[in-house]
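Table S2 (text version). Query chain:
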Amino acid sequence: MKKTIHAACAAAAFYAGIQLGPVARAEPDDWRAEASAEDARRLARIDQAWSEALRQARRNHRPGLASLGLLVEPKAALRGSRPAAGAYYCRTVKLGSPGGDGPAFAAYDWFRCEVEEGPGGELLLEKTTGSQRPWGRLYEDNAKRLVYVGGQAGYGRDPAQDQIGAFERLGEDHYRLVLPWSKQQSILDLIELRR
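Corresponding structure-token output:
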């Protein structure tokens, strides 16, 4: 009887939104456990996104692309892509246009980003200034990249704004986040981070 009353109280508290004790939720250690199948397919096609986005952008924006150096070199990633926690300057560059009818190149001003390390060593990336402020988690993937799973409202809350990408090191305190097949405005978004 006592057990039944406790179970009934727990169920009532749950439905009323009251938490009776700590509820541990294990964070996945593999990005594949977090990302949707659609987003995993977008990441698998990252080389195609680079190719199509650069093809379009090179038509009329060669000087602008050249000024970006390694940022727009698809194979520029170096080993050791895990960034140090702390503040970074960051900017977004958009390449290519879905359907080819919009601008194929846009580079925006510098804003602020933050990399935070959680208690379990997990890395979180957040753009902290500007009108668009995506945030998400960086997962270990291979020697040359981490995988970012995030979005404007975090990941999974609004699939239309979910993001997936490759986080890569280009040099000392110099990184990029490559977001293939962007769901808004471009084929490839690059977020450059520098200290």
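Notes on Table S2: Residues 2-16 form the longest helix (15 residues). Confidence is low (pLDDT under 50) at residues 1-26.
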